[in-house]
């Protein structure tokens, strides 16, 4: 291995220390037929200058949402990010996604995680938040596992209107441990309440809904909660868009037990779909079965305010296989971006982002609904994203619009809905951006 800088003498000393005479002795448990001495057919090495040019040429093929008129959403959104967010993220004290095991020596990291947890609790109305999850999908799956641990029941009812990618992750988490997932079919873009009433029983650990859901529609969380909590032990889990909580009811108002969501919209770029971060908050009574790390505020030996990881007996470095989850190093840098973003905007700023996104989405929806052969797919109320029925396959509209640097939305055909487009609008869109999309869609009217 010429790229490792050990000398021959150093290698001999290392082999002697571990009790073997040559490197091949380390491979004795690997059958001969699986070994190879052939050289790999690799390209020649590039100099730094050459590789920089090569990467720049490849990167030039990308189109960013800054250059295009993009209405892509489906869980990852193009919200404005203040410049100060990235400047703070790039400080060397913070610029890592790792949560240190010797956490108490990293008081700055612990403080911002504590502040992040506090802000998530304020947004959701919950009593406790963990330090973050990998993404919204893993947070939703972990919430189902929490419910199973709490209730000792292994049936989860999940809204069919949640993000389809969440469904895949939930399947991966639950299939091997015997948790039955029952999906509630969609009716007019929201949960079929009657189906839920007929399906829930005393073997149900939890009911999970997303609001706004994958189609952008707002679920009737109050009505769903009444059904869920008619069974005393069943938990109500809600996946939310954090931006929406500046305008809509907080989950605590409709008595959610666990709240999860994708946090990317809070100060994180779209980044080709990642990295992301999930948030998870709950009632205090569920704290000891919560996955991930939790930072608490305490005092040090001299009576000064200090921060520490708390309730660590839940975690794998203590409980090993009996830990509440495998969440360890989380997406802490993304969490920091969210913390800085929410701090810079404040409550009124976040409300303004939500209000502008809501207003502009409804302006665009009305304009599109008035076009010949286009109509809103559902009558349900929505927040910043909505579904539209199209006169031709949505894929054709997308491919022709992309020629003019317009990304009109997501084709819902892969998710079982023909001739349907999912359109997302954020506060970044100007009236001319919205009108440009309307004019483009006019071309597809029959």
Describe the structure.
This protein is an alpha/beta fold. The protein folds into three domains: 8-59, no CATH class; 69-80 and 347-442, Aspartate Aminotransferase, domain 1 (Alpha-Beta Complex), CATH 3.90.1150; 83-340, Type I PLP-dependent aspartate aminotransferase-like (Major domain) (Aspartate Aminotransferase, domain 2), CATH 3.40.640. It has helices at residues 8-17, 48-59, 83-89, 107-124, 136-151, 164-174, 193-199, 221-228, 316-319, 332-369, 394-402, 431-442; strands spanning 69-70, 128-129, 155-159, 180-184, 186-187, 190-191, 206-210, 235-240, 258-262, 278-282, 295-299, 305-309, 375-376, 385-389, 406-407, 410-411, 420-424. The strands form five sheets. The chain has a seven-stranded mixed sheet, with helices on both faces. A hairpin with a 5-residue loop joins strand 11 and strand 12 (305-309). It starts with 7 loop residues before the first helix and ends with a helix. The relative contact order is 0.14. The mean pLDDT is 92.
How is the CATH topology of the largest domain named?
A: Aspartate Aminotransferase, domain 2
Total individual domains: 3
Number of helices: 12
Strand content: 5-15%
The succession of helices and strands, N to C, reads HHEHHEHEHEEEHEHEEEEEHHEEHEEEH
Biggest β-sheet strands, sense, barrel: 7 strands, mixed
- The helical percent reads 25-40%
Instruction: Please give the order of strands in the largest beta sheet.
Output: 2-10-9-8-7-3-4
Output the radius of gyration: 25 Å
Mean pLDDT: 92
| Strand tally | 17
The structural class is: alpha/beta
CATH class of the largest domain: Alpha Beta
| CATH architect. name of the largest domain | 3-Layer(aba) Sandwich
State the distance separating the first and last CA atoms.
Answer: 65 Å
> Could you say which overall geometry the principal axes of the C-alpha atoms support?
globular
Q: Indicate the low-confidence ranges by residue numbers.
A: none
Question: What's the name of the CATH homologous superfamily of the largest domain?
Answer: Type I PLP-dependent aspartate aminotransferase-like (Major domain)
């Amino acid at each position: 291995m010429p790229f490792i800088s050990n000398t021959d003498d150093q290698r001999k000393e290392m082999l002697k220390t571990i009790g073997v005479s040559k490197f091949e002795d380390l491979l004795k448990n690997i059958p001969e037929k699986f070994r190879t001495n052939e050289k790999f057919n690799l390209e020649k090495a590039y100099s730094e200058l050459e590789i920089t040019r090569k990467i720049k040429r490849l990167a030039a093929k990308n189109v960013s949402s800054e250059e295009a008129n993009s209405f892509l959403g489906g869980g990852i959104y193009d919200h404005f990010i203040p410049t100060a967010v990235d400047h703070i993220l790039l400080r060397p004290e913070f610029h890592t996604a790792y949560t240190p095991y010797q956490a108490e020596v990293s008081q700055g990291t612990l403080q911002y995680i504590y502040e992040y947890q506090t802000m998530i609790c304020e947004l959701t109305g919950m009593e406790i938040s963990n330090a973050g999850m990998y993404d919204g999908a893993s947070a939703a799956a972990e919430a189902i596992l929490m419910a199973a641990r709490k209730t000792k029941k292994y049936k989860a009812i999940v809204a069919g209107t949640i993000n389809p990618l969440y469904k895949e992750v939930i399947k991966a988490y639950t299939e091997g441990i015997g948790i039955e997932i029952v999906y509630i079919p969609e009716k007019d873009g929201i949960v079929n309440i009657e189906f839920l009433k007929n399906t829930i029983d005393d073997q149900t650990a939890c009911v999970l809904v997303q609001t706004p859901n994958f189609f952008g529609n707002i679920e009737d969380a109050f009505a769903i909660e009444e059904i869920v909590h008619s069974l005393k032990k069943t938990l109500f889990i809600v996946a939310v868009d954090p931006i929406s909580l500046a305008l809509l009811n907080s989950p605590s108002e409709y008595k959610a037990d666990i709240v999860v969501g994708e946090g990317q919209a809070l100060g994180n770029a779209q980044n080709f779909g990642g990295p992301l971060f999930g948030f998870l908050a709950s009632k205090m009574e569920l704290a000891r079965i919560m996955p991930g790390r939790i930072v608490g505020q305490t005092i040090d030996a001299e009576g000064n305010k200090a921060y520490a990881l708390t309730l660590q007996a839940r975690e794998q470095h203590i409980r090993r296989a009996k830990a509440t989850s495998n969440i360890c190093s989380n997406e802490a840098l993304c969490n920091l971006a969210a913390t800085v973003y929410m701090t810079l905007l404040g409550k009124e700023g976040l409300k303004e982002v939500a209000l502008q996104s809501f207003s502009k989405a409804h302006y665009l929806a009305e304009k599109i609904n008035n076009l010949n052969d286009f109509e809103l797919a559902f009558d349900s109320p929505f927040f910043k994203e909505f579904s539209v029925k199209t006169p031709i396959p949505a894929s054709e509209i997308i491919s022709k619009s992309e020629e003019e640097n317009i990304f009109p939305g997501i084709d819902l055909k892969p998710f079982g809905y023909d001739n349907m487009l999912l359109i997302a609008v954020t506060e970044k869109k100007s009236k001319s951006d919205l009108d440009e999309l309307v004019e483009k869609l006019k071309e597809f009217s029959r």
